Amino acid sequence: EPARVIEGRRFVATTGPWMALTVDGIGPGGVVAPEGQDEDRPHLVAVEVAPGSTALDRVSLVGRDGVLHTWTIPAGERMSAVQLRALPRVVTGIAWSTADPDVWAVTAPITVRPPTGAVPHDTALETSP
Predict the structure, then answer these.
(1) How many CB atoms lie within 10 A of CB 9?
(2) Which residues pair with 71 in a beta bridge?
(3) Cβ count within 10 A of residue 122
(4) How far apart are CA 99 and CA 87, in angstroms?
(5) Is 56 exposed, middle or buried (0-12, 13-18, 19+ CB in 10 A)?
(6) Nearest to 91 by CA among 71, 111, 72, 105
(7) Could you give the CA distance from residue 44 to residue 112 in angstroms, rounded to a whole number?
(8) What is the DSSP secondary-structure string of 31-46?
(9) Residues near 38 by beta carbon (within 8 Å), at least 6 away in sequence
(10) Residue 47: how many CB atoms within 10 A of its CB?
(11) Is the CB of residue 45 less than 8 Å from the CB of residue 52?
(12) How far is 108 from 13, CA to CA, in rounded Å?
């Protein structure tokens, strides 16, 4: 059973507190399908922490080239969400406690498919004029 979870990329590594990350409602191991041809459409990125896991108060969405966005989980809240545009092909979430550096959680990756024919931002080749 653990091997299937790891192979399916549906896991969270944590020092104790639990968190869930979704992009457009799709969690780790899932694939966010494109909607039409709008490469820059907004994506709803949400994080939820379990009751008792409120020590997690900061979260970053990370892509291949580093941190895409960092935000705060409001004190006493279990859910927090942001809208982001033009996500790279693969993202993961990292959450931590600003009060205790030993409290953190990291999600498995979520794949974001670009619209048909589009080149994902994180794999686009740069050309000089």
Answers:
(1) 17
(2) 59
(3) 17
(4) 29
(5) buried
(6) 111
(7) 12
(8) EE---TT-TT-EEEEE
(9) 115
(10) 23
(11) no
(12) 8
Phi, psi values for residue 3, rounded to 5°: -65, -40
Looking up tokens 């869930």 gives 20
Tokens (6 digits) for 123? 């794999």
CA separation for the pair 20, 107 (Å, rounded) = 7
The amino acid that residue 128 corresponds to is S
Q: What is the pLDDT along the chain (129 residues), one digit of tens a residue?
A: 655 555 556 667 788 888 888 999 998 888 888 766 566 778 899 988 877 655 888 999 998 889 999 998 888 888 888 898 878 888 999 999 999 989 898 988 898 876 555 554 444 434 344
Q: Which residue do the tokens 């993961």 mark?
A: 92
Distance, CA of 72 to CA of 108 (rounded, Å): 20
Two tokens, residue 37? 């041809």
Q: Are 62 and 96 in contact (CB under 8 A)?
A: no
**Alpha carbon of 105 to those of 85, 119, 122: distances in Å?**
24, 31, 24
- pTM attached to this predicted model: 0.74
